[in-house]
């Protein structure tokens, strides 16, 4: 078998649809509800943990902690321990995180601007669903 007949090395495949692709894992992390909201909030600026938890209404402390760890692992968030008394932890976006947050902001703006359309579609769906039952 020649080299050209062999399958490509999975580590080199960069296709979000490929199961083993790193971009797919990062895509899954970024598109989770809490990650997207945390990235949007951090796009506004630096946050301390509890301030970020208040900004992302409804997220538990445990879930926010896990979310921030995933985003830090993916290179989108920096966790900085500020040596003050008492010490505090602040989170900021990396350049990659800023680029991702910008695109999420565009999507969030689109969705916020189409709330009336979404509500109308949901009402129509509910009406159709009731008629089917």
Give a verbal description of the structure.
The protein is mainly alpha-helical and 133 residues long. The protein has a single domain, classed as Arc Repressor Mutant, subunit A (Orthogonal Bundle). Helix content is 57%, strand content 11%. The chain has six helices and three strands. It has helices at residues 22-30, 33-42, 49-55, 61-73, 95-113, 115-132; strands at residues 47-48, 77-82, 88-93. It has a three-stranded antiparallel beta sheet. Helix 2 crosses helix 5. The longest helix has 19 residues, at 95-113. It is globular. The termini are far apart. The mean pLDDT is 91.
What topology does this entry show?
Elements lengths: L21 H9 L2 H10 L4 E2 H7 L5 H13 L3 E6 L5 E6 L1 H19 L1 H18 L1
Antiparallel strand pairs: 1-3, 2-3
Helix pairs in contact: 2-5
Q: What integer value in Å does the Rg equal?
A: 20 Å
Distance between the termini: 59 Å
Q: Please give the largest β-sheet.
A: 3 strands, antiparallel
Order of helices and strands: HHEHHEEHH
Q: Proportion of β residues?
A: 5-15%
List keywords for this structure.
133 residues; mainly alpha; Arc Repressor Mutant, subunit A; three-stranded antiparallel beta sheet; 6 helices; globular
